[in-house]
């Protein structure tokens, strides 16, 4: 039998930290084996079944041959218009469906690609904690820095974030994983 192992190591992959959701899954399994009752807040999965009318619509649409192909890369125009309308109704924000709305398979994927597309070496990303663990990872791939602060209690997050953003953080301070890419 042939050996298909790679001849070289991929150093970027070797330096990746353990994936936090794998760690929490292992901890949950161990706790359940010990008979502990677990309430899982790790991934934000729904805690109930999808409403029947949504399942019915999905089944109906899946039977149509015109739905068996790939969507356009920006998403279906009607869906982008609905996204723009939702932002207008909910937040009173005007979003152009042609240039400011895009459909992704999830928020994590969308944020990862946003960072991949927009961050350059040395850019600083400002944001709140807690945040998705992958945000750190994609920022590190692009060699960007971070100025993150806990939302905390009592307000003042935006002022604290502004103060942190205004000072240049060293690469060491921003090495969230204890490694460099």
Automatic annotation (TrEMBL):
Its cofactor is pyridoxal 5'-phosphate. Residues 37-129 form the Aminotransferase class I/classII large domain. InterPro entries: Aminotransferase_I/II_large (IPR004839), LL-DAP_aminotransferase (IPR050881), PyrdxlP-dep_Trfase (IPR015424), PyrdxlP-dep_Trfase_major (IPR015421), PyrdxlP-dep_Trfase_small (IPR015422). The keyword Transferase applies. Pfam families: Aminotran_1_2. Its EC number is 2.6.1.83. GO terms for molecular function: L,L-diaminopimelate aminotransferase activity; pyridoxal phosphate binding. The keyword Secreted does not apply. CDD domains: AAT_like. This is Aminotransferase. The gene is dapL_1.
